[in-house]
Write a structure and sequence with these properties.
Helix content of chain B: 25-40%
Distance between the termini of chain B: 18 Å
CATH topology of chain B: Hypothetical Protein Ychn, Chain: A
CATH architecture of chain A: 3-Layer(aba) Sandwich
Number of strands of chain B: 5
CATH superfamily of chain A: DsrEFH-like
Distance between the termini of chain A: 29 Å
Strand order of the largest sheet of chain A: 4-3-2-1-5
Strand content of chain B: 25-35%
Number of strands of chain A: 5
CATH topology of chain A: Hypothetical Protein Ychn, Chain: A
Strand content of chain A: 15-25%
Number of helices of chain A: 6
Number of domains of chain B: 1
Helix content of chain A: 25-40%
Strand order of the largest sheet of chain B: 4-3-2-1-5
Largest interface: A-B, 22 and 19 residues
Shape of chain A: globular
CATH class of chain B: Alpha Beta
CATH architecture of chain B: 3-Layer(aba) Sandwich
CATH class of chain A: Alpha Beta
Order of helices and strands of chain B: EHEHEHEHE
Oligomer: heterodimer
Largest sheet of chain B: 5 strands, parallel
Largest sheet of chain A: 5 strands, parallel
Order of helices and strands of chain A: EHHEHHEHEHE
Number of helices of chain B: 4
Radius of gyration of chain B: 12 Å
Number of domains of chain A: 1
């Protein structure tokens, strides 16, 4: 089976623009892309939050209450629920003083996957091994 | 001049704000500007908070991003939309948006 690795890099903070949301919805769409591929082909998306993009991963968003829009937290949780591999740059959450226990977790929705906190070197490896890289 | 400045970005506005002077300066952190009031990069508060100014942060934009009053630097006052309207009409002669 021929699988293609895709890297989605989210580097913009949440909500002021649609950028972060677009990155996540594009990544989630991997579930339906099979219909456009030949038999035996598939894609493996990986989502990486770096820089100010790690702000998207702080939990307890109240965007529906305040903006009337689906929260980025919901998109992250749904991504975990469909078994997307998602990575958060450890250097960046440390730099911004974001404790790991403040990050989004989809365990309450029954997701097996969790946000994986990794050093940037691991994200660099993901970039190196991906056929296509999408920056949001 | 009494100048109120809406700060709605985290990284890109620091230099501009740093150059602004006014008889009375108010920095109102909204949208992604709220991270100036909450994030300590490498253990240090935003350099904007070192300015001589009054600082405000919009509660609704904090909550949207999963942040609470407890995350806010003690130099910054948490305000709601109604308070911001009062600031615009009562406290500042000119308002700019960065």
């Amino acid at each position: 089976m021929s699988m293609i690795d895709l890297a989605f890099i989210i580097q913009r903070p949440p909500y002021k623009s649609e950028t972060s949301t677009l990155g996540l919805t594009h990544a989630i769409s991997y579930q339906v892309v099979d219909m456009f591929l030949d038999d035996g082909q598939g894609v493996i998306p990986k989502v990486c939050f770096i820089g100010e993009g790690v702000f998207n991963c702080i939990s307890e968003h109240k965007s529906m209450e305040n903006y009337g829009v689906t929260s980025i937290e919901s998109h992250v949780k749904n991504s975990l629920l469909v078994d997307l591999d998602m990575y958060v740059c450890k250097e960046d959450i440390d730099r911004f003083g974001i404790p790991e226990n403040r990050l989004v977790d989809a365990e309450d929705m029954g997701a097996d996957k969790k946000l994986q906190i990794v050093p940037f070197s691991e994200i660099q490896n993901i970039l190196n091994n991906s056929k296509h890289i999408f920056i949001f | 001049m009494k100048l109120g400045v809406f700060v709605n970005e985290f990284k890109t506005v620091v230099e501009t704000v740093d150059r602004l002077t006014a008889e009375k300066l108010g920095l109102i952190f909204i949208q992604n500007g709220v991270f100036h009031a909450t994030i300590k990069e490498n253990g240090k508060s935003s350099p904007l908070l070192d300015k001589t100014a009054n600082f405000y942060v919009l509660a609704e934009d904090l909550a949207t991003r999963g942040l609470t009053d407890a995350d806010v630097d003690n130099r910054v006052k948490v305000v709601n939309y109604g308070d911001v309207v009062d600031l615009i009409f009562n406290d500042y002669e000119k308002i700019v948006w960065l």
